[in-house]
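help with these tokens:
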Amino acid sequence: MIKSEVKTDFPILKRMVNGEPMVYLDNAATSQKPQSVIDKLTDYYVSTNANVHRGVSTISVQATDEYEAARSATASFINAPSSRNIVFTRSTTESLNWIASGYADNVIQPGDEIVITVAEHHSNIVPWQQVAKRHHATLKYVTLAANGQIDMADAKQKITDRTKIVSINQVSNVMGAINPVTQISEIAHQHGAVMVVDAAQSAPHIPIDVQAIDADFLAFSGHKMLGPTGIGVLYGKAERLAEMQPVQFGGEMIDMVTQQTATFQPAPLKFEAGTPNIAGAIGLHAAIDYLNQIGMAEIHRHDQELTKRCIDKMKQIPGIIIYGDDDPVNHNGVVTFNVAGIHPHDVATGLDMEGIEVRAGHHCAQPLMNYIGVESTVRVSFYFYNSNADVDRFIKALETVKEFFANEFDEAEPTI
């Protein structure tokens, strides 16, 4: 059981917003950082600030050791076979773009198919649109079942022998649905396709085993799982990384350069051109250590308990529209909703006045918004440092906002 005292590890959670104690419920956008991660970043710059690899000075060797230890910790976190399967990037977005440009551009031919879903983040849509456009391929979308999860019957129909790449989120950043990526991976491989998993929303919340999923590639970001901004992870099977070409060139990643030619180091270094985000990787290591102390299974259980409490209470408020299945087992810490008659941005602004930090908009998922027939929604998203009291504060604030706008409309002069 996660104790409420865990909040004390996060300095920002002590702050006030609009005169109210802040309740942070925008974790799907970014998580807050514990003091241990902040201290590790400070310690690097205070005592170990040096460039990595090639250097023989004491602090350069120490920085290299810490950077590579972060790679090893990341590999263990997702049960990768080796640290050599882990490439550090800036973000999930960059990881997916590198897969599209460095791998897909070399394998996609005219008439080939790429399969994604209507529930993808723009970062897992636009790169594939560009690949399809460049190579005259077809981009196909799997639809959703009523509960917001992938329609597996449609997935089996859309993935064919013409499919070369399947790229799907493990957890939707809007619906919160946990998708059966292992089953989809099996279908993709039966047709000879490569499986790409967007784990931006799953890596912070549920245990991940890339070998059990049999993912060819998997991507996630540090900032959503307690780590610093600007550090991302690209996992690839050894054979896929060998086939993938670097998309940036410069120092560190080269083996030998002449005036007219260059050869590259093996993966992962061949993809990490220039000075990497050393502090970001070291901070990510500290974040992984923190998460491991709590346990990913325990974090998942806690998220679902808060989600259930939230949905159960929201269903008692008239005029609340919850998107996706209202069974909390199909929501992993994310609840997306609208309030009838009130614009999502007005709801979010009203909640902010009560100290409740949520997000409103299309959540970088405009095809999904169009699919469910809205332009935008409000999203609350939980993490392990949230509590039952945070849920109750949110519900009370939501009722206050709803009542405020109802009174505003009642008191408004009639229009002709």
Notes: The longest strand covers residues 163-169.
